[in-house]
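Here is an idea for our session: we take a single protein and study its fold together. Start from the sequence, derive the backbone structure tokens from it, and show both lines together. Once you have written the record down, we can walk along the chain together:
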Amino acid sequence: MRERRAMNKRHEAARNGALAYETNNYSPRLAPFYERAAGFWPPLAEQLEAAAQAGFGCVVLDSGSLDAYLRQGGSLAGLRARVDALALHCLAVAEIGIVEDTECVIAAARPLLDAARALQAPYLQASVMGVAGNCQESARALEQLAAAAGATVALEFLPFGGINGIAAAQGFIRAAELCNTRLLLDSWHFFQGPSTWEQLRELWPQQIAYLQCSDHAVIGVDNPLHATVNERLLPGEGVFELARFCTELRSIGFDGVLSCEVLSSAWRERTPAQYALAEFAATRRYWGDDAGKPGMRRARIEARGEGNG
């Protein structure tokens, strides 16, 4: 036991706690939207190992990968043990679509919140998929359920959805009178949607759950749903002003976690090890130990479930 603790401490020392790896790029959940069929579904354990070896300190686990892991005989206790052995922290479980049918939302959320509870994930990722005005009751029920599991809802806006930017997301939170919900700021959705720099600067750090980062070849796409699932680039390879994006967020006092989410048909054909190494190398230039050391402490506090207030 003493040797295992020492090994975990050595692993943790090498991890960048301000950066998170997302399993979403290989998720069976997104398969209907893939540009071409995935040649393989890498096991969740392989992705976790790849994330740890690359240097990530946190992971975001998607519902499709979790479901596949459990259906293949895995257990939440076993997953927690694996995450701990790799000295990783589960930042969030993703994601729930908030629709008008409250009972449907609750039923979909329960297994993800079971995972969040077992893994001590501080966030449950969600997005509004129905007509915003008709989804307020569902959003209230979801955040109450999340709070009971020790989690906060991380609300993601989508440029092709009813809540398409910062202003719309803030309006929804106010209208629904949500008190256990924070914003998830995805650079892809920020630059491809109506959000502005002024709106970003007006946010308080306490309003933000965490960040997601990727790039794209152009601003303005004909089919945003296809593009967001298949055409994202590594940070720095496209036209997004990512350095300014990160600088503006630091200027308002946010020092939380940045999660790299490069959804890409090209990277989907590579191994998780190759994918994780490329993501980590690209992202650490913008955030983390090299560009924002305060994030490490915040990441570890929230991953232990102490930062949900």
Remarks:
- The chain has one domain: 2-303.
- DSSP finds 13 helices and eight strands in the chain.
- The first strand starts at residue 16 and ends at 22.
- Residues 102-119 form the longest helix (18 residues).
